[in-house]
Amino acid sequence: MPENIDALEFVIFDTETTGLDPLTGDRVVEIAALKIKGGQRIAAFDILVNPGRQISPGAFAVNKITAAMLKDAPRIEEVMPKFLEFIAASHLCSYNAGFDLGFINNELKLMGFPAINSVTVFDVLTMAKRLMPGLPRYALGFVAQALGIKSKQEHRAFSDVKMTLEVFNRLKIICQEKGVALASFYYRI
What we know:
Blueprint: E1 9-17, E2 28-37, E3 40-48, H1 57-63, H2 67-70, H3 76-87, E4 91-94, H4 97-110, E5 120-123, H5 124-131, H6 140-146, H7 157-178, E6 186-188
Parallel strand pairs: 1-4, 4-5
Antiparallel strand pairs: 1-2, 2-3, 5-6
Helix pairs in contact: 5-7, 6-7
């Protein structure tokens, strides 16, 4: 992977879910993504998903997504092929990538599709922990605030994607200032 990260096409993505554990039946209720290259936004993806089940009170308390908002939303079987097409041939970037990829891959498994693989993933949470040691918390909104980002976290997928992009851009600057190779923050799945 080239060190000039701006030469690469990235998809920064996020999910909102019915709860915290896909292995116990929690499902995706929203997927959002921004395609970026050379610091420019190329395309956006943002859609609610009808999960076919209730949202847990804990998830609702965070994302404020209601059953009424999801009633007429498409099912994951309709959304996932469009999302896979959107991310095709791009590097992926997320805040707490394991969480989001865990849900995406679980949805793919339930559909009988293979998991996402052969892709480079940047986890912005991992970057924040290594580049900003000693913070009392590493929640996205808290890290954004520590980096001087003024926007308030809304806990909706697209707003979290935009905040992740801002945090990612600030952390890239910290990498340059500290002489840390960006390549040390990606992994292949």
